[in-house]
Specification:
homotetramer, 238 residues, 8 helices, 40% helix
Chain lengths: 238, 238, 238, 238
């Protein structure tokens, strides 16, 4: 069933998310952000196949949870829309997703190291990052989540965590809102950089599970602060 | 007793401090700078709860040393105003404070390494950085200095030094003026980066205590040079 | 035989390539990009001797495969045009070349380490980078490919690969189009940074040969996405 | 004897040098560039005490080789003008000097490692960097070259080389022209970054003495290329 149009505020928020992620180096010419449809939990919004830094309102397309575009109108869509589709299907709590090749996170995935919370800003890493090894489920591939079966496997690897590292590829972060998903994608990158440097200095005291959970809860009350900054830097999205 | 309004020059200086710290990557969407009230040593100025990079004159609020806002007018204030309140109470020599998650400093805190002066610009690190481990005073927390008791403990850890690293959180730098506190926050970050790199090359010859003290004294006569640069880059703060 | 003028679209593309490579830090004041002439496979286009970040349409000169400029009109040309000439002669499949001192790649050349594909974006590194040691062919030189004989030796070292590291100098990347050569030069630099960091974390799982080949094939279908971003950022090239 | 006014082209070049060095991160709020007077070999030009990024024509002051300002008109001058004075006295071949705290170079000085030429752009490092340990000549100081005696010692440590590292302080680079000194200061920083990274990868093959000398000679014929870029980026210096 075709849902009614998504709310304009959500569409604008998703456009902003794309621009913010590019401006702050979480995505480059590749990577994508999505939001669950605010009028239908069985649909989500994602830009057509394009660089996130250029996304405008009219580039946002609606997809169902099988990865079918409802209103692409012949425009090319992302090969990896199944990342989003299958995570939205598996995780009712998720309302926004960021897939990126965020640079400092990649070295952790390819060495099968976990991201762990270095500081309170990354309390959402309490359980550590999950890891997805595509070889285990599909042998030698082009590394991309190009169909539903791979999307299902990725969602399974993610489990209940907030981030899954994808070996030789990138990572995917989930959130309960667009703001939270962008926040987490940004601070996963920051945390990775800090974790890499801290390891060079000596034994690292990470936040323990209770510290991380408490910090995450407090941070969630402060998301508007950084969202205001980031959106004001982007300005009008046209 | 309610103090008279702070001097407009001090308010402008504090606004500039916030903007400079963001522009130069010492703070991101979080972190804050304060100044002791120039008309009442029992009060201090601090922005309302917002990203430092967006602070304008009208966002500056007056607080007493218990962390109570006098003129917030219902606006949200920072959870961690107690960092400022308790350090101003404990240290009569301190007239400005910067709390940040300055990235290169974090790895030192979480590995319990001291910042030491690599070069003359960071002579203020002569005694090395102090370290605050919040677990020692409050067990598992959200890592934040969210009440006066934690503020007292942080101020005690700082002692007479110029900077205290906060494990799993960030750091706090103090100064005898807004310019000096901003200078120190900026060069603590620079020094951390240099110290991390120098350690990779071999045995580091740090400034000894007398070199550091002499360098710090000379640098204090040159603060205006860099303040002129930084403020001119910011331009009019509106 | 003098070819007719190159197509204006190709000339514009080459100007954009120069500007993009500077904007994204692949080249600095030095380095150069070329394209095989679209009307004569025995000629190629390359800017006159100048910083790539300043190149305009009128700076593009036509060369033959001996490195002779046809229309320089007395303007100085690059000392290292033989890099381009001899690779175009040796590799019929190559239609664009980027020579740079891209910073993260240099450490691999001087330690004789191979670049290997850390993630799918650098599937073109499947076979690893080739290495050129100029001492082996010419003893102690100024390190530059200043004549045809050195160009021939460099092309031989490159062989059928997509990138050759030049010890103590830089690297040269080839592509089947201007877009592909720019993409590869950009992601060779990104990959080098990732590879350096990943090695610090532990044993790296690189893409294997089949993964890399498949990823490269898929990426080639997505080049327009990043090219649109990069060209829009440059704007009008005058 | 008071020299006639320096040529306006030289003054402009020195202003540009200051701005370029700031724009490219070689200097921050501190550091300075000078040029030998083009009408009197016993004098040199240096800005008044100010951030290099703000220097304009009218800020350039003439000094004699004892470090006396001829036309400061009461304006404050740099404490470290003796770096310049004594090197100009000792080295007739030197026509421009850059003193900086260029970040990647500092770790080499404090660990008493030499900069060595990683690639052809830094052929001027052929002999390696010299090292100045101020403790050896003056015990515990504020680390600054604040008088002629220290300037003499620094010039002696420099000897006939192109760069001297100053432990716990920074470095000083000399050139036969403003362009060359700026080029060398810029590429000393680049080389330091490369050298640090290359060491992490394995055994480094540096340029040998003959390669470095030849590369340096060739590069000197290409200085205009990068100078054109850098000056065009700065634009009009007012």
């Amino acid at each position: 069933m075709t849902p009614s149009a998504a709310g304009p505020a959500l569409v604008e928020k998703l456009v902003l998310a794309n621009r913010i992620l590019y401006r702050h180096g979480v995505v480059d010419g590749f990577g994508h952000a999505s939001a669950r449809h605010d009028g239908s939990s069985g649909h989500f919004l994602l830009a057509r196949n394009m660089a996130p830094g250029l996304v405008r309102r009219e580039d946002i397309v609606t997809f169902d949870l099988d990865g079918n575009a409802l209103d692409a109108g012949g425009r090319r869509v992302y090969l990896e829309r199944f990342i989003h589709a299958e995570i939205y299907r598996a995780r009712a709590d998720v309302r926004a997703i960021v897939h990126s090749h965020s640079p400092s996170v990649i070295p952790f995935g390819v060495t099968k190291q976990r991201l762990r919370p270095v500081f309170h800003m990354s309390g959402f890493l309490a359980e550590g990052s999950a890891l997805f090894e595509i070889r285990d489920v599909a042998g030698d591939t082009d590394m991309l989540i190009g169909n539903g079966r791979l999307g299902v496997a990725l969602a399974a690897a993610l489990g209940s965590r907030s981030i899954v590292l994808m070996r030789g590829h990138g990572s995917t972060v989930v959130g309960a809102s667009v703001e939270q998903a962008v926040y987490r994608a940004f601070y996963a990158e920051v945390n990775a950089r800090l974790q890499l440097q801290a390891r060079q200095l000596g034994k690292v005291t990470y936040l323990n599970a209770r510290e991380a959970a408490k910090a995450a809860a407090t941070n969630d009350t402060q998301l508007q602060r950084v969202w205001d900054l980031w959106t004001q830097e982007i300005g009008d999205v046209g």
